[in-house]
Design a protein that fits this description.
heterodimer, A: 261 residues, TIM Barrel, 9 strands, B: 394 residues, alpha/beta, Rossmann fold, four-stranded parallel beta sheet, globular, binds pyridoxal-5'-phosphate
């Protein structure tokens, strides 16, 4: 069974998904970051494949990606690292990147390597529904590799239904009309949108991301969805961490509102 | 037929690889642009502005001394004589009229050489609409006169500080701005790049260039078709406009001139058709310069308008199917061509355009072949670079 199904079967609320950019702050930080996040009780981890031109990302994730590329991160190196990590943890792992990276790697090979390494799902924000359904859906489904689509406040109801039909794993609800890392409070208008989506009773679990950066925003997001996704705030934390393991544990506890032990 | 299909592809190039955050805007544009452009009221306003504001038709000029030098008749399509000094305004007039009909109240644009930024700032001033132009930090420096013009016109110029700090990065920033402002903003892209419907829409607005060429050539030569059309290609909008009505006329050779920078194999180049492979840039599946790992390579050219690691999907298709020939021209060759044209015809071309003239030394032709060079813009913005070169060569 896909680890994402396992996760959402046993946990419907307060699912915490943390995004980090692979290769940042150092090339070999991947293993430490994933294992520490797992230890701190994070439910799933989104591993970002650094990209030169990440259109949907704000300055924090862009900056971490640039540094990761300077550090020498590539997709083949990342797969090698993830293979070693997978031997040590069963935490659900998602790969996030841009479609050009997958295209150049070779879509078939990418899917196969994800399966071999034990990746549970993929997010490619610039691969549109139409292209996915026409050309790639079958490949992903055959491999049992899940695929998450995004929805935003502007996504029409009809299209959300389509997203729900094509998504496997969870739907990524973009909290606001924004690139990553933009805002840090949640407005009335956003709550309205969260309520509207909740009322649609979609088949897939929903995680809210973009602008979630504190216990407060996390807790609010959790009221209206199955959980939340945090990226930029976590990257800022690892970027300035003196002791990576300690900082990661502290960060997760501060988000959950629990006390670090 | 060379045209876009209903999914927005020229052959295997094009499409709309955009994050969901842009979907409603792009889809709105895609579903409406053809109908809006076809409206009689739109056409009336568009044509009137092209005539009285831009100064169209732009002349087709038989460059006699140049023809003598190359021993064949060479005509220059004088887009440099348009208001604001380049072909870019044909597109911005079209898009601002479209944006108004879509109810948009805020305009963003990217610019490399600053010509598209100036053309956008100009139409925004004309319509009284807020205008923000993203420009790479490197380009802000090397195209300073155009930065001043944009400011004078009331636009805000925002520096793009990531990557190579040039056109690619300015485009990234404009796209991010659009993601952050999905309701009130229209993004006026300056070339035949980006997600569908932009490449087709911009090509249609620029197609006035070849529409005029047809009747102008007939008047002057008795035939609507030249033997060869030469245009420089950054993203490819002036070339798309110059080719448009000849795309399906196989007797007309299409020459696309790219910037080789310091040389195609020096690692400092923007010659996409030689160095590029198939991939995705700015929402379009096309040819682009990238590493094996799919990271976009930072290009280099002395010319800010050609300093782009991709080409529009139409051009990728034309080159891939051998309908167009690609020629690469180095910085040095372009500079020499700019001085040549200035001194032989009294026309100072833009650095981008100078690349097209250098191609006259590189292509094969028979004496008597009628050649049209699309003179996409004038060189006022490049005087600093030209004068520096002049001081160096003495
Ligand atoms: C005068 C001139 N020619 C050509 C270009 C290149 O753009 P395109 O390939 O879209 O015509 C530019 C771009 O800034 C320009 O200013």
């Amino acid at each position: 069974m896909n680890r994402l199904d396992q996760l959402f079967q046993k946990k419907e609320k307060e699912v915490l998904n943390i995004y980090f950019t692979a290769g940042y702050p150092t090339l070999d930080a991947t293993e430490t970051i994933i294992l520490e996040l797992d230890k701190a009780g994070v439910d799933l981890i989104e591993v970002g494949m650094p990209y030169s031109d990440p259109l949907a990302d704000g300055p924090t994730i862009q900056g971490s990606g640039q540094q990761a590329l300077v550090n020498g991160m590539t997709v083949p190196i990342l797969f090698e690292q993830l293979k070693r990590v997978r031997e040590q943890t069963e935490v659900p792992l998602i790969l996030m990147g841009y479609f050009n990276q997958v295209m150049q790697y070779g879509i078939g090979k990418f899917i196969q390597d994800c399966v071999d390494v034990g990746i549970d799902g993929v997010i490619l924000p610039d691969l549109p529904l139409f292209e996915y359904e026409s050309y790639y859906k079958k490949l992903f489904e055959k491999a049992g590799l899940y695929f998450s689509f995004l929805i935003t406040p502007q996504t029409s109801e009809e299209r959300i239904r389509k997203v729900d039909e094509l998504t496997k794993g969870f739907i990524y609800m973009v909290s606001n009309s924004a690139i990553t890392g933009a805002k840090n409070t949640i407005s009335e208008k956003q709550i309205e949108y969260f309520n509207r989506i909740q009322a649609m009773e979609l088949n897939n679990p929903r995680l809210i991301g973009f602008g979630i950066s504190s216990h407060e925003t996390y807790a609010t997001a959790c009221q209206y969805a199955n959980g939340a996704i945090i990226g930029s705030a976590f990257i800022r934390t690892v970027g300035k961490a003196e002791n990576l393991s300690e900082s990661i544990a502290d960060f997760v506890h501060s988000i959950r509102g629990t006390v670090s032990v | 037929m060379i045209a876009i299909d209903e999914r927005g592809y020229y052959g295997e190039f094009g499409g709309a690889f955009i994050p969901e955050m842009l979907h409603s805007n792009i889809d709105n544009l895609r579903s409406k642009y053809l109908d809006i452009i076809a409206e009689p009221a739109f056409q009336k306003e568009f044509q009137a502005l092209l005539k009285d504001y831009v100064g169209r038709p732009s002349p087709l000029y038989l460059a006699e001394r140049l023809s003598e030098k190359y021993n064949t008749p060479i005509y220059l399509k004088r887009e440099d004589l348009n208001h604001t000094g380049a072909h870019k305004i044909n597109n911005t007039i079209g898009q601002i009229l479209l944006a108004k009909r879509l109810g948009k109240t805020r305009i963003i644009a990217e610019t490399g050489a600053g010509q598209h930024g100036v053309a956008t700032a100009t139409v925004c001033a004309l319509m009284g609409i807020e205008c923000i132009v993203y420009m790479g930090e490197v380009d802000i420096e090397r195209q300073a006169p155009n930065v001043s013009r944009m400011r004078m016109l009331g636009a805000e110029v925002r520096p793009a500080k990531s990557g190579s700090k040039t056109l690619k990065d300015a485009t990234n920033e404009a796209i991010r701005d659009w993601i952050n402002h999905p309701v009130d903003t229209h993004y006026i892209i300056g070339s035949v790049v980006g997600p569908h419907p932009y490449p087709d829409m911009v090509a249609r607005f620029q197609s006035v260039i070849s529409e005029e060429m047809k009747w102008q050539l007939e008047e002057k030569t008795g035939k609507t078709n030249p033997d060869i059309i030469i245009a420089c290609v950054g993203g490819g909008s002036n070339a798309a406009g110059a080719y448009y009505h000849y795309l399906n006329e196989k007797d007309v050779r299409l020459v696309a001139v790219e910037a080789a920078g310091l040389g195609v194999n020096t690692g400092e180049s923007a010659a996409t058709s030689v160095l590029g492979t198939k991939g995705i840039i700015h929402g379009s599946r096309t040819l682009l310069m990238q590493t094996d790992d799919g990271q976009i390579i930072e290009p280099y050219s002395i010319s800010a308008g050609l300093d782009y690691p991709g080409i529009g999907p139409m051009h990728a298709h034309l080159i891939d199917t051998a309908r167009a020939e690609a020629v690469s021209v180095t910085d040095q060759e372009a500079l020499d061509a700019a001085f040549m044209l200035s001194r032989i015809e009294g026309i100072i071309p833009a650095l981008e355009t100078a690349h097209a003239f250098s191609a006259l030394d590189k292509i094969e032709y028979q004496s008597g072949d009628v050649i049209v060079v699309n003179l996409s813009g004038r060189g006022d913005k490049d005087l600093n670079t030209y004068i520096k070169y002049l001081d160096k060569i003495g």
